[in-house]
């Protein structure tokens, strides 16, 4: 499958993507994970992106499109891919359309995951992420805590609250999303690709996607 997953920060795009990858070998592509890995590694891209990410702002398109073009041509994308958190703006969507046409790739569907703001806010405030860029396991202090406080169950690295998941940063991210990213739903609806699925459970969202794809 070749999908774009839309939804506010904390809507569950990453969790849904991970479940979907088990169905047909599609690869999850998250620009957020790529950029956070670059920050951890101290690359030039990471240093440039870090300031934007910590404020909850969008990373400039000039840093993103080159990453996406290279990533979509890697061998593991041949079985399909799930774009998680990209595109984020109309200009990015237009650039992505040009890139997909250049690479002769056609999308199956664009999924808009609709989750209430209060649910998202609670999810992000209580989320903890493994600091190891090779792991990036996600936990929740309420629903899925680490066995040892602050330590990743999988690799033993610190499980931290990201700088962009403080209450102030979350509010800013959600406002940024509503202004710049939410209009993507209208963009893809006009192209006949959009399917909106409402649900706070990742399993219900996955079931809805499978139904739309006839799986």
Q: TL;DR?
A:
The protein is an alpha/beta fold and 215 residues long. 48% of the residues lie in helices and 15% in strands. It contains nine helices and eight strands.
SSE topology sketch:
Elements: E1 2-6, H1 13-24, E2 27-30, H2 31-41, H3 44-55, H4 61-72, E3 81-84, H5 90-102, E4 109-114, H6 117-125, E5 127-130, E6 138-140, E7 159-160, H7 167-181, H8 184-190, E8 194-198, H9 202-213
Parallel strand pairs: 1-3, 1-4, 2-3, 4-8
Antiparallel strand pairs: 5-6, 5-7
Mean pLDDT: 88
CATH topology: Rossmann fold
CATH domain class:
Alpha Beta
For the CA atoms, what is the radius of gyration? Answer: 17 Å
Oligomer: single chain
Find the structural class using helix and strand composition. alpha/beta
**What is the makeup of the main sheet?**
5 strands, parallel
Overall number of structural domains: 1
Short descriptors:
215 residues, alpha/beta, Rossmann fold, five-stranded parallel β-sheet, three-stranded antiparallel β-sheet, 48% helix, globular
Protein described:
The chain is of the alpha/beta class and 215 residues long. The chain has one domain (2-213): P-loop containing nucleotide triphosphate hydrolases (Rossmann fold). Helices cover 48% and strands 15% of the residues. The protein is built from nine helices and eight strands. The strands form two sheets. A five-stranded parallel β-sheet has the order 2-3-1-4-8, with helices on both faces. Helix 1 (13-24) crosses helix 9, helix 2 crosses helix 3 (44-55) and helix 6 (117-125) crosses helix 7. The longest helix has 15 residues, at 167-181. The protein is globular.
